[in-house]
Amino acid sequence: MDIANKIRLKNVEVTSDFWKRYRELVVKEVLPYQWKVMNDEADISISEDPQNNGRDQNSHAVANLKIAAGKMSGHHYGFPFQDTDVYKWLEAAAYSFGYHPNADLQKITNSLIDLIAEAQDDDGYLSTYFQIDAPERKFKRLQQSHELYTMGHYIEAGVAYYQATGNQKALDIATRMADCIDDHFGLEEGKIPGYDGHPEIELALSRLYEETGKQKYIDLAHYFLKQRGQDPDFFDKQNRADGWDNDILEGMRNLPKSYYQAAEPIIDQQTADGHAVRVVYLCTGMAYVARFTGDKDLLAACHRFWKDIVRRRMYITGNIGSTTIGEAFTYDYDLPNDTMYGETCASVGMSFFARQMLNIEAKGEYADILEKELFNGALSGMALDGKHFFYVNPLEADPAASKGNPGKSHVLTHRADWFGCACCPANLARLITSVDQYLYTVNGDTILSHQFISNKAEFDDHVEVVQTNHFPWSGDIHYEVRNPEQHAFKLGIRIPSWSAKTEIAINGAIQSLPVKDGFIYLNVTEKSLVIDLKLDMSVKIMQASTRVESDFGKVAVQRGPVIYATEETDNQAPLWLYKVSPEAKTTYHYDKTLLNGVGVVQIAGTRTSLAEDGVPLYTPATKRVQDPITMQLIPYYAWANRSDGQMRVWLNS
């Protein structure tokens, strides 16, 4: 192999204290806890979960597979996509074996693979709701059925498990599923000219193609993307044939076609509309297929959707989805903080999208957003104990409002044990256990290092890149490049958009290097190279575009990639009485004893006194007395890990 023409990444070991803690937490707490929940063995309550839709404390996800396999009797319980909780958990476990081999866990996962194989129909079909309770309705109501979505999540898990363990059965289940889908879908006579209401199969088939090299899988993924929206009435036609009122999921029949990204062909869609998770899963699939097929129309759609989301529809934390109605996008610049949705799965999906766009083109913007999700929007979804979770991630919360206002009841101010719709916990777990796969992008002879997560990376022919730092609390980033055989390659390092001043030293000498699309590039030919970055980690007081009504007259606090929040735990409630100036003085310190070690920001401001209860509700306006105070802020991802109380990201100015 000529490394000058192509270089391959072999292994990445995450050495970051910050991420090692989370990755070990998943192994020691999250995976065992979630396995107990899915086997109905955990003492949990989801009574406060606004998403439970009548589901009780049981998951029944493993039991559904046992019933489908003939090992138990009974009916299906849960959502039609309940199987996916198991599959995402399996995928997370597979990734964990790469850094924490666990023979006991692998016995469980090998047995789970055997169970899934027994549950799978002879023709490759596997969706337990339809196998157990509605076999006559297979593929008959794709708007709501989540069949391809469900099988897509297994295909992803099966590929990951095969790669981690070499278990051929895991991959065979995935290929049989894909073959079954290929047999049923397409424009040929006798096939279904449709697609699933929830995108996922497109990215799953792309991963299967990447592993197996079988052209029919990427062709099938391409078909699903090109066919979506070609017949806007496809779902309605199926629903009528299946019985108009015979819904699988109540209420979904009346949602607009744009909710499913089915109102028009993708290449004609101009904005990111509908259910936020569906959108970013669709975009991830589009980016995959565009990369493998060279489809320029799909790539153009990726660019349109990316720009609309990032520039008009994304919260400062990276969260997306402005409304609880449909867990969806609304319209440009509509970003309410106290009624927002910001589903954890959507931030995880946005990470997928960003990673795939980096695989297509070296632009720092994609890595900036990936970093924003990793340290803010996605990470907020799990408590520091690994056993409590957020489905919804607000930027402003008040326990009294969540309890007393039905329009805010979806906003929890403490993380829940579990959810009736439990898509988020295992989704976040699989992102954390696979974070080593998000640090580098390799294209030809170029290695892009775009995340500042300490690691040791091994490439072909003994090339190593070792990064050490105390990020995100310190901006001193140290690289050692080892190239004993003196191969020639390029190393690109991201200069994040939040770092206004970045100092670069090569072998101890300060250098001035041009920044191209957010990266500096070095031509590496020597045996060893030392690179040091000093990133600008000053505290920044941020403001939103004046097009964002909800944030007008407000500011937020950011340091490095981390967005900060103020909590009632540290600041006397109510938090709406505080004001800070865009020029306010700030201080920063790292507190190793707080919240498993966090950087703390203090900011000077003022506080207006709270009116006495019972005085006139409205009075002539006068200048209110404002007392000087100092507010304390903690990283947004770490809020709601202490006492239950108010929280705000955007502060009055």
From TrEMBL:
Q: Which PANTHER family does this chain map to?
A: DUF1680 DOMAIN PROTEIN (AFU_ORTHOLOGUE AFUA_1G08910)
Q: Where is the Non-reducing end beta-L-arabinofuranosidase-like GH127 catalytic domain?
A: 11-436
The record places domain Non-reducing end beta-L-arabinofuranosidase-like GH127 C-terminal at 539-652
Which SUPFAM superfamilies would you find in this protein's record? Six-hairpin glycosidases
Note the InterPro entries from the entry: 6-hairpin_glycosidase_sf, 6hp_glycosidase-like_sf, Beta-AFase-like, Beta-AFase-like_GH127_C, Beta-AFase-like_GH127_cat, Beta-AFase-like_GH127_middle
Kindly state a single biological-process term from the GO annotations of this entry. Answer: carbohydrate metabolic process
Gene source species: Lentilactobacillus sunkii DSM 19904
Where does the Non-reducing end beta-L-arabinofuranosidase-like GH127 middle domain lie? Answer: 446-537
Q: What is the name of this protein? A: Glycoside hydrolase family 127 protein
* Membrane-traversing stretches: none
